[in-house]
Design a protein that fits this description.
alpha/beta; Rossmann fold; seven-stranded mixed sheet; 17 strands; 15% strand; disordered N terminus
């Protein structure tokens, strides 16, 4: 990690460049110092890309039923985070939902002395849905952010001094935060909601890969540069820009050498876990994490409340009870569906419907999808009232006929026969700050409406 000293960027850049030269001479890690290849299909959910090649899990092993309609509070099922050694982020974080951040409002005062140093504790951020992070505030405008995997970031005001006694692995960032390398694409929407896209100068997506207009414009204007995807970062560019923080998605756990190399060059790394949240608004509430990081708490609170109100209106409508299958067809002939415990089935439940697979997958897994044989999908979804095809991976389909070309067996499905087939927009996963609108779309779909939807499109 970055340690607890403020950055002197000129010295840092010089030292980092020296390290870069040494690494090249020593063949360090076999790293490539230029972006290679082109970006693949749009990442699905920050951690499901590559699922096409995985063996289909046995759904009868270790599964539990999950309710689509229950609204999870932040204090339900929370266990104390392990003390001492920080978990190894290079290992798959299976069971992450059981290792929740402790609720500091329950029986504790302040933060551990080993982390707070000389800081004087004021309060902790009250979270309603998110379970994978916490924020503690201290006098003088300091905030300590703690993630599910043990990562700690101290955000301090401009001109502030890092206190003595901080843990050696605490990342210290002075506001205003600049020159962020953003790989976790869903986070861009949160920075956009906070009017803070300018803090990002390095992107893990190429310009054409962004659906967030402010990000595309920043790249067009040269204010943001492509610095390589998660597995092939352009280390030379990242170091030369004096990168203050790399915000990765969970896919980087499959390339641990990337984290190792970034940290070797003095670049602190955090992994963003919003996609591990079990409640849809838990994902949205991560805007408060980045609000605390950037010193924009009020803006974050307002952005969250806007989506919360939209969801409340959608959830208060009539419950149709219509059944919905949400799926994607992989290139090797499998049906990729959401685990029953995932946030998408919960969105369907909040919109007044019911996800057709009520006991699919492992609720303790960090994965959000399951690949099943088409025959199994047929058995479970043939009588579903509605089909929603996930377009975020392959660009989607434009008609029912095109969908049937992918899988003729779908012609026997009730939703196909009754004309109730929809697909998502390609930008759905890049816009977590619009989850309320998507739930509203699903509610309207269940009510029989086919026009005027924002993230769903009816297929003829």
């Amino acid at each position: 990690m970055a340690g607890n000293k403020k950055w002197n960027w000129k010295k840092k850049a010089a030292a980092a460049c020296l390290l870069l030269v040494l690494a090249g001479l020593l063949g360090c890690g076999g790293a490539s110092f230029a972006p290679q290849g082109t970006e693949g299909a749009q990442e699905q959910e920050e951690g499901t890309k590559g699922a096409r090649d995985e063996k289909t899990p046995d759904k009868n092993e270790g599964t539990e039923s999950a309710s689509d309609e229950k609204t999870l509070g932040k204090n339900e099922g929370i266990k104390d985070a392990p003390e001492g050694k920080t978990p190894d982020r290079n290992e798959e974080t299976k069971g992450a939902r059981d290792e929740k951040i402790p609720d500091k409002n329950e029986g504790t005062e302040g933060a551990p002395d080993a982390d707070a140093g000389e800081l004087v504790y004021e309060r902790s951020l009250e979270l309603q849905y998110a379970e994978n992070f916490s924020v503690d505030y201290y006098e003088g405008g300091y905030a300590m952010l703690t993630e599910l995997d043990g990562t700690k970031i101290l955000s301090m005001p401009e001109g502030g001094k890092a206190p003595d006694g901080l843990g050696k692995d605490v990342i210290v960032l002075e506001r205003p935060v600049r020159d962020v390398y953003l790989v976790a694409s869903a986070v861009m929407d949160m920075f956009d909601a906070l009017d803070a896209v300018g803090a990002i100068s390095l992107s893990g997506q190429k310009q054409e890969g962004w659906y967030i207009e402010s990000a595309r414009q920043a790249m067009e204007d040269g204010k943001m540069e492509y610095a390589g995807k998660y597995s092939q970062p352009d280390y030379e560019l990242i170091v030369s820009k004096g990168c203050s923080l790399a915000i990765e998605n969970r896919m980087v756990t499959h390339s641990p050498e990337v984290v190792e190399m970034l940290e070797k060059f003095g670049i602190p790394v955090m992994i963003e876990y919003s996609s591990s949240e079990s409640h849809p608004l838990g994902r949205v509430e991560w805007v408060k994490f980045f609000g605390a990081l950037l010193g924009k708490d009020e803006e974050a609170k307002k952005a969250f409340q806007e989506q919360e109100e939209i969801l409340r209106k959608a959830a208060s409508g009539d419950r149709t009870g219509g059944t919905v299958a949400f799926f994607f067809l992989t290139s090797n002939g499998l049906a990729q569906v959401r685990q029953s415990s995932d946030y998408v089935p919960k969105m369907i439940g909040l919109a007044g419907g019911k996800y057709v697979f009520d006991d699919l997958g492992d609720p303790d897994s960090v994965r959000s999808t399951v690949n099943i044989q088409v025959e199994e999908f047929y058995d479970g979804a043939r009588d579903a009232d509605f089909l929603i095809y996930n377009s975020a991976i392959d660009g989607g389909v434009s008609s029912v006929g095109e969908l049937l070309e992918k899988c003729p067996l779908l012609g026997d499905f009730r939703a196909v026969k009754e004309g109730n087939v929809f697909c998502t927009s390609n930008d759905m996963y890049q816009q977590p700050m619009s989850i309320g609108y998507l739930i509203g779309d699903i509610h309207q779909m269940l009510a029989g409406e086919k026009e005027g939807l924002r993230f769903l499109h009816h297929l003829e």
